[in-house]
Fold this protein.
Amino acid sequence: MGGADVSDGGAERLRRWRMVLGGGEGEGTGVALSGVDVGMDAALGALYGADGGGGRKRAGERSAGLGGSAPHVARWLGDIRTYFPTSVVQVMQRDAIQRLGLSALLLEPEMLEAVEPDVHLVGTLLSLNKAMPETTRETARAVVRKVVEQVEKRLASRTRATLTGALDRSARISRPRHADIDWDRTIRANLKNYLPEYRTVVPERLVGYGRASRAVKKEVVLCIDQSGSMAASVVYASVFGAVLASMRSIATRLVVFDTAVVDLTDQLDDPVDVLFGTQLGGGTDINRALAYCQSKITRPADTVVVLISDLYEGGIRDEMLKRVAAMKAAGVEFVALLALSDEGAPAYDRDHAAALAALGAPAFACTPDLFPEVMAAALEKRPLPVP
């Protein structure tokens, strides 16, 4: 790199390469760090350096390490929040938990107060729920509540608005008041009455929206796989469940499952209670969960069942598919989501996904931002907006 550009742009590129490569005899940048860069490099080295995970440092390699020292880790958490933006801090925290086995330290209140809360941290805390001492539980609930409030602020208003519109459109009436007329559908329904000389359509038949009422119009069952790989989906689904439950026109049921089935509907007024009622990890019996959900359906033509699972079935595969087919035949709208998160394409059982698609229930991953549109389409019985 001896011929590198030494202009301001070239110097900045060399500085960045030095931060990436971590220094040492063979990295070749010739850049010496100073000021804030020294602290940033130490924070990166503690996690990603040769000794970050407790391994032996080789000559010339970046090292520092976090080890298992709670005070050291707490200082490191403070450092990375000083040097990096929140989105980067969250990634580094996640890597530290996964690479260095720091989960046990999250059982200490002082550690929880130092971390940057996000959905993935909530998933880790929920997986540790049963091992959590009472001294940590209230701090953990505060961390989880902060994330839940962030998710609600991001998604709740748009979800209510989108689904309220879908519910109104699904209750069209033929003698609407003026304010309730659906002009687009009315014009399409009366195109045969077009008068060219007046360039207008005579609205012989009016199509309108039904006014929102307090009566329950639709029933929604959220059936959530709580195996360890579904942690982020559980968080988002719990928040959406609480939002749906707050809408008078939708009767919402929330069921979580592994090899057992737990109905958390009576806790939907507080998604934090829902989350602490889950038990991440364990096996999967989708068939048993769907059997329970099926037993609770009283108005199939007005019911939407949302299965959120990676479809790795530990139960009886053929029975699971028969249940889905039976629900659809009865008029239930069945939605299969492989994940409800921002994490990108998930791992899933492709054979089971193909079998569901053959039944007319395509399985796909869904982001939290797309979920209101998916639910609106299901409530209106129109094709789902599959990405």
Notes: The mean pLDDT is 83.
